[in-house]
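Structure tokens please, single chain.
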Amino acid sequence: MPILDKSSIEYWVFDLDNTLYPSENNLFSQIDKRMGNFISRQFDLPLGEAKALQKKYFQTYGTTLRGLMTEHDIPPQDFLTYVHDIDFDVLDRNDALRQAINSLDGVKVIYTNASRDYAEKVMEKIGIAGLFEDIFDITSAGYIPKPDPRSYHKMIREMNIDPSRSVMVEDIARNLVPASDMGMKTVWVPTGHEWSGAGASAEHIDFTAPDLVAWLKSLVED
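Here you go.
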């Protein structure tokens, strides 16, 4: 098993959804459902057709929102407000995760295709609020989502991050490709979702962490 040289790491870049909380909580399934409903209502489509369009945009553009903006000029805030109106009570506080992240030396940031307001609600609910230097959200990215390399370059500029001394943690394997290409160490947190493994290859994944807390703890114990 490869070992991370912690002395070479100054920056920790964490994805949010299905990475810092278990995908089994099905928080994102609520968002997924509301995205389908948004498209169905917006274009007066049967739900099945709306879901197919949603999946097409996600696969083509990285996020459903980017597809809607590119092809239909949908105002991003209308979409984000609607799809993030969900029940956060399905999330549990995770003190073990908080302790593991808090034990890491260096600057820690959140890098998410979601909105800042949503990210803050999730972080508060799972008990990791206050541990991160900043949040680079979809608005910060100019609505250009992962895995578009332009988003990564803007993130490292605005966060003042040196990729060669960084780790990126993410549940969607293809989102680690630009990070690896920039020189970041990459950690894949696989889930049961089909999109999690898309783009998985040893070339772009340095570490695989099915249990993120256990992996982070192992860094401290080494």
